[in-house]
Amino acid sequence: MSTSQEGRAHSGGRGPDGAGTSARTVSCAHCGRTNRVPAAAQGSPRCGNCRAPLPWIAEAGDADFGEIAEQASLPVLVDLWATWCGPCRMVSPALEQVAERLAGRIKLVKVDIDKSPGLARRFEVQAVPTLLILDQGRQVARQTGAAPANALRQWVDESLSASHGPAHSASRRP
Ligand SMILES: [Zn+2]
């Protein structure tokens, strides 16, 4: 028998991680090294090469929201979105930019409300996108509807400084 299996299809080559793994690959903005960033972990992700903080972006649903969002050590920006929502498609990239700028300070967690009816009910989502900021599981800010990228950035900055003291103060509380 001389059947060759050469025709076996390559599945995308350098595609992203296969579905089902709750980790993303992220390129370090500082040194370029590719890192795997898990959806849930203690502390916050850092580059394995240069230790720079990495942006932390994850997806969560009814089953794993507690582990991924509420138990996170960083404040969490929750993006409650839907596939059929046009404005969500504009907001999501802006939020990813925020997560990159605030690497090490915030975690972005995306929730598809159609796959997560429990969370949609719990957060009383009336419209999408609905954005929340959670600090150790407690909601500290909420915004409904799309907004320009600058406005989103400003809202996140203000919400973080409101829950963690003035952003520009270098001093720590004893
Ligand atoms: Zn690096």
TrEMBL record:
CDD domains: TRX_family. Belongs to the thioredoxin family. Coiled coil: none annotated. It comes from Actinacidiphila acidipaludis. Residues 1-24 are annotated as: Disordered. The lineage of its organism: Bacteria, Bacillati, Actinomycetota, Actinomycetes, Kitasatosporales. Keywords: Disulfide bond, Electron transport, Redox-active center, Transport. This is Thioredoxin. Residues 31-161 form the Thioredoxin domain. The gene is trxA. It comes from the Bacteria.
